[in-house]
Amino acid sequence: MKKFKPHMMYDKSGKGHKANTYEDHLAMKKKGFGHTKPEGAKKRAARFLKKKDSY
């Protein structure tokens, strides 16, 4: 079995959560978390940052 490396996982809204243990990883996976940030969340974040910079 490979050694577990802590990594980020993302919920459907794109909010990141760190999986520090393999057990955390499995629990998040069961709840629907994934390894990549949803594309829509990336676009929303970019729009927010763009608006924030224009103030």
How would you describe the overall organization of this protein?
- The chain is an alpha+beta fold.
- It has helices spanning 22-30, 39-53; strands spanning 7-10, 16-19.
- The protein has a two-stranded antiparallel sheet.
- The radius of gyration is 14 Å and the shape is elongated.
- It starts with 6 loop residues before the first strand and ends with a helix.
- The mean pLDDT is 83.
Instruction: Report the mean per-residue pLDDT as an integer.
Output: 83
* Rough outline: elongated
* Main sheet attributes: strand count, strand direction, barrel closure: 2 strands, antiparallel
Q: Treating each run of at least 4 consecutive H or I residues as one helix, how many helices?
A: 2
The proportion of residues in beta strands is 5-15%
Which strands sit side by side, in order, in the main sheet? 1-2
SS-derived structural category:
alpha+beta
Count the domains. Answer: 1
What is the end-to-end distance? Answer: 51 Å
The run of helices and strands is: EEHH
Low-confidence segments? none
Helical content stands at 40-55%
Radius of gyration: 14 Å
How many β strands by DSSP? 2
Any key phrases for this structure?
55 residues; alpha+beta; 15% strand; elongated
Quick synopsis:
The protein is α+β, with helices and mostly antiparallel strands.
Helix-strand blueprint:
Elements: E1 7-10, E2 16-19, H1 22-30, H2 39-53
Antiparallel strand pairs: 1-2
